[in-house]
Amino acid sequence: QSIAQEVLGLLCMVLLTLTALVANTVVMIVILKTPLLRKFIFVCHLCVVDLLSAIFLMPLGIISSSSCFNRVIYSIAECQALIFLNICFISASILTISIISVERYYYIVHPMRYEVKMTIRLAVAGVIFIWVKSVLITVLALVGWPQGNGATSASRCTVYWSPGAHKKIFLIIFSIVCFILPTIIIFAVYSSVYRVARMASQQHGPVPTQAAAPRHRSDSTVSQVTIITTTRNLPLPRLVPERFLGSNKAILTLVLIVGQFLCCWLPFFAFHLHSSVAAGTVGGGHGEMVVTWIAYSSFAINPFFYGLLNRQIREELARLRRSCLNRPLSQELCLSVSEASVQENFLQFLQRASCTLETHTSCISNSPRNRLDQTKAGFPIPGQVPEESS
Questions:
Q1: 10 Å Cβ neighbour count for 362?
Q2: Which of 13, 139, 292, 343 could covalently link to 347 via disulfide, CB atoms 3.0 to 4.6 Å apart?
Q3: For the segment 147-156, what is each residue's pLDDT rounded down to a tens digit?
Q4: Could you write out the DSSP letters of every residue in 70-105?
Q5: What is the rounded CA–CA span in Å between residue 314 and residue 26?
């Protein structure tokens, strides 16, 4: 390789590492410092995993990939530790993305069930499941490694250093558990979300507004029936373009999320799966280095796709930045408790639409816009006389 190619490659690896360090740290700090954003447990956990990968894996990957460090020698124990961290953090990151996708599925398609079942205990159990599964997968990679005081160069410290039939079995299991199954889950989940987006864009049913709310309270049954009938028949021509644009934004965001996952991890697992099943093919070398750093780029991209696309996180980040610079706040950003569980603008749009599509009733909301529509689900309207149970 020429010196220019070597310098360019080294610069790209350093830039990716710095981006992963800064972006994951910023998103994690914003979530931890804001009590109303602490429901993003899995997003915060993804930032923690990617930050650990940026601290340990990516610098070691620079040493293994750059010819400037050809003289670096690893012992067997050091190489085993590197392989352990590599597989463990990769597995934890991908499994966390899968759980985030499932969480969004329930948040959008079954919002009421999500509000009831999504608890801190369930989130902690999900994090424990991720790490237990990642460690178990990593232990399989270390089976059959040579013992003794041998050593190898940094560029050869890969899972292929210890050849054997068990390595092929491990790579097949690793590819199935950490890529094929998560890919199936992500496609199934976001396909359901896509269908909700399409149905939401085609939904032309009226939604009551605050202007349609009654100005005077009435206790008569005739007034209640009149209010409900008027609310259901209100024309709403301005919301149709809004829903259409919101649906297109949702679809574009979903395509970007799924495409980013495939672009980062498909070359990595395809290379290792082909190397494990193809006769006479041995992994390592320049090809493995390229696909490894394409996969490592996911650690720098994830905080943008799963963190900074969030409107609440961006607003809180802007407020913290202004506070650090001691600038006066032009507008104080106040997030209500109900807004704390909203993940992204398009998720809020889909969640509102899916409530109507799933239950044919309105969502439980504190906004005046939805108070009249809550009468369909048994919520009293202003001035309603409570019925006595028989």
A1: 21
A2: 343
A3: 655 677 777 7
A4: TT-EEEHHHHHHHHHHHHHHHHHHHHHHHHHHHHHH
A5: 11
Q: How many CA atoms lie within 13 A of 16 on its CB side?
A: 24
Burial of 21 (0-12, 13-18, 19+ CB in 10 A): middle
Sign of CA dihedral 370, 373, 379, 381: positive
> Which class would CATH give 3-203+246-319?
mainly alpha
**Cα separation of 306 and 102, whole Å?**
14
Q: What's the pTM?
A: 0.73
- Residue 72 scores a pLDDT above 50: yes
Q: How confident is the model at residue 253 (pLDDT cuts 50, 70, 90)?
A: confident
Given a cut of 70, whether residue 110 has pLDDT beyond it is: yes
**% the chain with pLDDT above 90:** 28
Nearest to 158 by CA among 48, 261, 275, 264: 275
